[in-house]
Amino acid sequence: MEEINEIKLGEIEGMIGYLVEDIIKAFIYFELLIIYAYVTTFLENDLRNCVYIIMMLGIFVTILMCWQAHKEMKEIKIKIKEIKQNLR
């Protein structure tokens, strides 16, 4: 019984690692978008439109990363509930 819980705790630690990695990627990507937006203020109109399209795609990717982190968090909660039930 304890071995099973230790294995599940190891899985949770790995999942938390992926969760933190996704959150860090999303924040870094968001910071790059802010820098990108600042740079666009100095560009001409034609280039500015292209940059806006790239920024919109970047925002979409950032939202997807946050959604992935949210899904991983739900999986972690489920694993923790399983361990609690095994301890009872």
Keywords:
mainly alpha, 88 residues
The total strand number stands at: 0
Number of helices: 2
The amount of beta strand, in percent, is under 5%
The parts where pLDDT drops under 50 for at least 5 residues are none
Order of helices and strands: HH
Distance between the termini: 11 Å
Radius of gyration: 20 Å
Major pleated sheet: none
**SSE-based structural type:** mainly alpha
Percentage of residues in helical conformation: over 70%
Q: Using the alpha-carbon principal axes, give the shape.
A: rod-shaped
The oligomerization state is single chain
The mean pLDDT is 77
Number of domains: 1
Helices and strands in order:
Blueprint: H1 2-40, H2 45-87
Structure description:
The chain is mainly α and 88 residues long. The chain has one domain. Helices cover 93% and strands 0% of the residues. The protein has two helices and no strands. α1 runs antiparallel to α2. The radius of gyration is 20 Å and the shape is rod-shaped. The model has no long low-confidence stretch (mean pLDDT 77).
Please outline what is shown here.
This protein is an all-alpha fold. The chain contains 2 helices and no strands.
